[in-house]
Structure formats: structure tokens, C-alpha cells
Design goal:
The chain has about 140 residues and is mainly alpha-helical. The protein has eight helices and no strands. The chain has a single domain (about 25-135), classed as Cytochrome Bc1 Complex, Chain D, domain 2, CATH 1.10.760.10. It has helices at about 5-25, 25-45, 50-55, 70, 75-85, 100-110, 120-125, 130-135.
Length: about 140
Amino acid sequence: MKSAVPAVTMRCVTSALFLAVCVMFSPHAHASSKDDRKQGEVLFRERGCEHCHGVDGAGSDRGPNLSGVGRWLHQPEIAMQIRNGGKTMPAFGDTLTDQEVQQLVAFLAAKKKKGVPRPDLAKANGVSTRMMACR
């Protein structure tokens, strides 16, 4: 007698994959991401991130160049850095809403310039250096 579990599991997996593909390629999801990036860029200026990280995140003597941060860190790691801070960066988890953090993450995750040296953030906030090296 054959088990019905594999067929049910296969249908669930197929349905989940179909749903994921639909969401990934829907115009609304892309527009939302684009809007989040634009709003994150505005927040980067308005909330004073440029004070330490320079105009458009190009770096300064107070904060590292973030032009390639999207190549070094995954989105959850960027969010953790914003919320918890690290080394000389203060924590902003109490001053930014979850939506603002997500918008800043969308803006920063899109920064994938090659050739920008990665700052040493791992020791300060507990991020796995192994995960950072995967990028």
C-alpha cells in the first residue's frame, strides 16, 4: 500500500514554490521594494546616518563606507546592526520604527559596489564572520 504523505508533501511544496514565484515576480512586490529603497535613502539623510557614514554612505572619519554593504551582509544582519549598533555605532532600535529599519535595510542592501573594503563589524555585534565571508 502506498503512503499518501509523499503526494501531499509534493503538492504542498509545489504550491509553496508557485506562490513564492508569483510573489517574487509580482509588480506590487517589486514596487514596494523600490519604494522602500527610496524611502530608506530619505531616512538615511533625515535621520542623520550621513553624519557618520558620509553622503550616500560613502564613509567618513566617523563611520565606514557602506557603498558595498549589500555584498557583505544579508538583510537580517544589516537590520541587527542598525537596531543594536556595534563598535562605535550607537543602537537605533529604540528610535526607529520597524518600518523605518526595513526601509533603511532595503536602501543599504542595494548598495553592492565592488572593490570597497569591508569594515570589521563582526566582533562588535556578534555577526558570524563565516556568514559575512559567504558574500
